[in-house]
Amino acid sequence: MPVGKRIYLKRNLPDPKVIEGFKHIPASNTADCMERNCAMHPRVKLMSKPDSEMVGPAFTIHTRAGDNLAIYAALRYCHPGDVLVIDDEGDNTRSLIGEVMMSYLRDQKKIAGIVIDGPIRDIDNLQNWKLPIYARSTTPGGPYKDGPGEVNIPISCGNVSVNPGDVILGDADGVICIPRKDAAGVLPKAQAFHKKDEEKQIAFSKGDVDLRWVDKSLKDKGFDIIDDIYRP
Description:
Layout: H1 16-21, H2 27-32, E1 45-46, E2 54-63, H3 69-77, E3 83-87, H4 99-107, E4 113-117, E5 119-120, H5 123-126, E6 133-135, E7 137-138, E8 149-151, E9 155-157, E10 160-162, E11 167-171, E12 174-178, H6 180-206, H7 212-220
Parallel strand pairs: 2-3, 3-4, 4-6, 5-7
Antiparallel strand pairs: 1-6, 2-8, 2-11, 9-10, 11-12
């Protein structure tokens, strides 16, 4: 089996009920329940205008820099509800996908979204789509179609490790990856955190909050509170 030219058709998938449970929880709330180390780099930005969060199992793709043959393989083998997660080996010079391929993924494959650590093109139209599209940048420069590439193997996207079948959650803030084996345990924590966060926001808005802990923390950490102006 040639390393670099492998397409795996099967994945271990999370419980659909777990995926459904994350649909109404902000990515930030979930990330805070995971030691805040699961968020993709901010260079991976939301490029479209979805009306709901993106959540689904990762369908991973590793491409040679600037080549999209493996992404064409994904057009053949991905499933409805998948989130395509694409590692472009750090390249930022050639778009990997545009409106033509995206139309097929949206209308025929019914994917939940796409995350590309690399450029896309046709942003003039894609920016208005409801399909969640996350990418690094845009460029009119097109890709090669020669390979190599691999499908449904562990990859790195936005400096985060992603395995096939991991739960990918994205909103306006960005994208996080929830390891499949951890997702069922993270969900109730994220739900509780989200409820508490909503209550906290209401309390802060009303000014009904005790911030004396800040004074104690500043003192304990050695901050100086100086009742004067700064003088060079």
